[in-house]
Design goal:
By secondary structure, this protein is an alpha/beta fold. It has six helices and six strands. It has a six-stranded parallel β-sheet, with helices on both faces. Strand 5, helix 5 and strand 6 form a beta-alpha-beta unit.
């Protein structure tokens, strides 16, 4: 598989989503960013914010990640950002992102970050539906709900967009 005009998307690596389950992925993401830099692949970070009276609050009862420090991107990584988008829902495929993708002719979205079963999954499926080639980097994603939830998210991603669209870092790098 050839990765045509890729962009690395680091999804929601924010203080509010980091815990004992998700923090271990930081080193993998950092390594992936470093490899993207070497290969001149642009890096885009997303930042989620849960507004008051959002569907997350109204329908799910979830009121976290509204303000600082929960909305802060993980320290020491933000300096490596070429692009940054804010989002209010699961997907990174916002109108702002789609405009950036068109402007830069990105065709392959290399997706890592948090959380596999929600924002990573939704971004990958939306990318697929927008006719991008999504690649989810399994060992550079995690779930703040734990390993089993991460694995379930990867299983659903494989079902919805294809088994070959989920790779680990050592499978990805020769193609990047």
């Amino acid at each position: 598989m050839s990765l045509i005009n890729p962009v690395l998307i680091v999804v929601d690596l924010q203080v509010g989503f980091l815990n004992e389950h998700s923090t271990p992925v930081i080193d993998s993401v950092r390594g992936l960013i470093k490899e993207a830099r070497v290969r001149q692949v642009p890096v885009l970070f997303t930042r989620f914010r849960n507004l008051p009276n959002s569907p997350f609050e109204k329908l799910v009862g979830w009121t976290k990640v509204r303000d600082k420090p929960e909305t802060d991107l993980y320290p020491m990584m933000f300096a490596d950002v070429d692009h940054h988008i804010e989002k209010l829902f699961y997907t990174a495929c916002t109108n702002e992102f789609l405009a950036l993708a068109a402007q830069h002719s990105w065709r392959t979205l290399v997706i890592c970050g948090l959380s596999t079963e929600s924002c990573i999954l939704k971004t990958a499926v939306d990318a697929f539906e927008h006719r991008f080639t999504p690649i989810v980097v399994a060992d550079a994603c995690a779930s703040d709900l734990g390993r089993q939830t991460h694995l379930k998210g990867l299983e659903i991603i494989r079902i919805l967009i294809g088994n070959d669209q989920v790779m680990n870092i050592h499978q990805l790098l020769p193609q990047l």
